[in-house]
Amino acid sequence: MVATTNISEIFLLGGIPDLDDNQTVLAFPLFLLYIVALFGNSTILVIIKREESLKQPMYILLAMLALTDFGVSLATMPTVLGIFCFNYNQIPLDLCLTQMYFLHALAAMESGVLVAMAIDRLIAIWDPLRYVSILTHSVIGKIGLVILLRSLCVVFPVPFLTKRFPFCKSHVLFHSYCLHQDIIRLACADTTVNSLYGLVAVLMTKGIDSMFIIISYIMILKAVLSIKKNEARLKAFNTCVCHLCAVLLFYIPLIGLSVVHRFGKNASHLIPILMADIYLLVPPVINPIIYSVKTKPIRRKIVKVFRFSMMHRRTPADGVAAIKT
Q1: Taking the model in full, what pTM does it have?
Q2: What is the enclosing helix (H) or strand (E) of 292?
Q3: Cβ within 8 Å of residue 175, ≥6 positions away
Q4: Residue 286 Cα distances to 31, 77, 156, 177, 243, angstroms
Q5: Fewest C-beta atoms under 10 Å: which of 5, 101, 163, 269?
Q6: Can you give the pLDDT at residue 325?
């Protein structure tokens, strides 16, 4: 007997509506984005792990951010590349809910890491002499554990709340991956509980986190403005530039996507699609580039690694010539 799959358990993922059957034109750019994201974040992780001089709170938190971005890229890559490379857009309900869980949990983790990085910068500017003694490896480990457990536990009920719905409407999703807001709009039942819990989960994670980030930067700005020398003031604030870019890359598309999903019922379908793509695809690509360019120790280590690899790629003839000279 051949097993059959219930059609009500299959969803059709969306791509870019205006492209229709020509989705493959974006295959190479998207594949390149994933290569940059995976290579960039893995490079940062390897360098921070290997270099003892980078075992400082700031770089350990940066490693957490890189690990989270790496996870986001891995979670979205199968369905995104499946659509744009092979025009395959089907996904079973269980796989869809699994992807949804990891995407929302990873987003909550990234939000938590950004808060920890804001507090890290606050302590570094307010009390630089006690910076290392306050943010010890033990403290950083506990912060990371709290971020992980909070994210996994807060999002945990969402797949189970969503799986109980019958889906008798259209099975076509807006996005190239499964998001909670996108799935529940297709349910043939009252989704009030899901909507309320989703709102509570967002407030408990990104809502509280954004508040702490704003408070941290108000205090950072106050501390920076109290510095008398302009050069020292600029140097102090310059240490926050990378983190500010990461915060803006994460929160601006997130806020826009939430607003459109909740209030933009008559808005073009293209708007939430583009916002979701920016929200999930762009930060993992841009964050390692920003930190590699703006953070001098990271940049130096990357240059050192590439120089070392180039030296070991020399041909045997080059090695003999070098010995003779």
Answers
A1: 0.89
A2: helix 270-294
A3: 13, 14, 182, 272, 273, 276, 277
A4: 15, 16, 29, 20, 12
A5: 5
A6: 44
